[in-house]
Each structure stands twice: as structure tokens, then as C-alpha cells.
Amino acid sequence: MSASRFIKCVTVGDGAVGKTCMLISYTSNTFPTDYVPTVFDNFSANVVVDGNTVNLGLWDTLISKASYENVSKKWIPELKHYAPGVPIILVGTKLVLRA
Questions:
Q1: Total domains present in the chain
Q2: Could you tell me one molecular function GO term of this UniProt entry (predicted)?
């Protein structure tokens, strides 16, 4: 069955927070144990929604390391500026690293 729709999903955020790990885990059902900095990568997954196959294009980006505050001060405003009206999903990762 070929995909009837394509949805592009781009990850943005600070470095070393788990973006690549999340995408690898979702697309391959494995969990990488070693950290390898990402320059740019993309993944693909087909999912069935209401009986229709949807191809998810999952794009991983390189972002410089910064702080948690960048979510509200940098990333959300940037997304709203360059992609107004696009749904934003906030995913928290690396919960075990919280102090």
C-alpha cells in the first residue's frame, strides 16, 4: 500500500537533548546507546491513520547547545515566525538528567 499523504516533521531544539534518539527509536524500534552529534539526518516512517497510509518525513537538525529556557524564548517564537499556523508538539526528553 502506498502512502496517500506525506507529513514533514522537523525537530528543533538544543543539542544533546535526545532528538535523534527519539527519531531512531520511533523508526527502528531500537535505542541507540552512544551519543553521536547530528549534522543533518532524516528518517521515514509509514503509519496508518483512519485506514490511510501516511508517510512521516522526520527531519533531524543540528542545533547548538543552550538552555531549557530556549523553548519559550527562542524555538517557539522562531517556529511561529517561519511557519505560522503549523502545529507545535513539545516533547520533553532526558527526564533522568533533571536535578
A1: 1
A2: GTP binding
The CATH number of whichever domain residue 19 belongs to comes to 3.40.50.300
89 — phi, psi (to 5°)? -115, 120
Angstrom distance (rounded) from CA 61 to CA 77: 17
Residue pair 33/85 in contact by the 8 Å Cβ criterion: no
pLDDT in tens, 67-82: 557 777 888 898 899 9
Q: Which domain holds residue 89?
A: 5-97
Q: Name beta bridge partners: 41.
A: 60
Cα dihedral sign for 23, 24, 28, 30? negative
